[in-house]
Design goal:
Length: about 100
């Protein structure tokens, strides 16, 4: 139950980015993030809200699951910030 409640913070941060606390680092345990990623998947619209490196948007998979060694080369700041819209325009190559 504890992990589920902590996942709720990650969910609220993603679905309501206009809240003042949405830009803060949540500091959730790894298990909470794993549960969040396993339980969520994105339907892309314009790609501005889904994260290119972290979110589940490629045939119900994340880039981390497809190319773990590639993700290890990307700076953590870029992993957190790059959106699918940015990535599909080719900027992920610069990461």
């Amino acid at each position: 139950m504890n992990f589920a409640l902590r996942c709720r913070w990650a969910w609220l941060q993603r679905v309501d980015p206009d809240k003042p606390w949405a830009e803060f680092d949540l500091g959730l345990p790894r298990q909470s993030w794993q549960l969040f990623h396993a339980a969520t998947c994105y339907t892309l619209g314009n790609g501005e809200r889904a994260r290119f490196w972290q979110d589940c948007w490629i045939r119900v998979q994340r880039v981390e699951e497809i190319a773990l060694n590639l993700l290890a080369l990307v700076p953590p700041r870029k992993v957190r910030e790059r959106t699918v819209k940015d990535g599909l325009s080719g900027t992920w190559l610069l990461d």
